[in-house]
């Protein structure tokens, strides 16, 4: 299954996993400058695939910076599937609008909101 999963999801060069760290906005700019955007997770299969290839905490294309309390993908598509860590998103100190995936948590529950100013690795999707 893993070969099939990998081919059908990753296609050819669909994802970029950064080694550098940047804040959320600069991470997004990096992706857009290269014709993509921060990754949008549309299915559980994609979530499983991305979770299986990361080894750190990584920014994804989800935030509520535009409308507090309303998480939106960078392409404004509906948030169909969600994989929050238990208790998240909690907008800690009322200062957490950007979402990262935490590789040390189980794939079904590995999203957390964080201050957008944190410097993290990121994932682009083209
Ligand atoms: O307990 C979960 C909580 O942990 C931290 O806050 C204490 C995280 N904040 C940072 O890493 C800056 C929160 O995002 C997280 O919800
Ligand atoms: Ca949080």
- How many helical elements? 3
Give the full name of the CATH homologous superfamily.
Mannose-Binding Protein A, subunit A
Helix content: 10-25%
Compute the average pLDDT: 93
Proportion of β residues?
A: 15-25%
Using the 3D structure, state the CATH architecture.
Roll
Number of domains: 1
Order of helices and strands: HEHEHEEEEE
Taking the sheet with the most strands, its summary is: 7 strands, mixed
Task: Give an account of the 3D structure.
With 126 residues, this protein is of the alpha+beta class. Helix content is 23%, strand content 22%. It contains three helices and seven strands. Strands 1, 2, 3, 4, 5, 6 and 7 form a seven-stranded mixed beta sheet that branches. The mean pLDDT is 93. Bound molecules: methyl 2-acetamido-2-deoxy-alpha-D-glucopyranoside and calcium ion. Methyl 2-acetamido-2-deoxy-alpha-D-glucopyranoside binds next to strand 6.
Task: Tell me briefly what this model is.
By secondary structure, this protein is α+β, with helices and mostly antiparallel strands. It has one domain (2-125): Mannose-Binding Protein A, subunit A (Mannose-Binding Protein A, Chain A, Roll).
């Amino acid at each position: 299954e893993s070969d099939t999963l990998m081919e059908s999801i990753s296609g050819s060069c669909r994802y970029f996993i950064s080694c550098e760290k940047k804040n959320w906005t600069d991470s997004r700019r990096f992706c857009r400058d290269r014709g993509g955007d921060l990754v949008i997770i549309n299915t559980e299969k994609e979530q499983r695939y991305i979770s299986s290839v990361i080894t750190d905490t990584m920014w994804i294309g989800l935030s509520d910076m535009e409308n507090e309390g309303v998480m939106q993908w960078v392409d404004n598509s509906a948030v169909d599937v969600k994989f929050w860590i238990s208790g998240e998103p909690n907008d800690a100190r009322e200062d957490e609008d950007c979402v990262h995936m935490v590789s040390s948590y189980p794939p079904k529950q590995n999203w957390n909101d964080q201050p957008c100013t944190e410097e993290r690795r990121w994932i682009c999707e083209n």
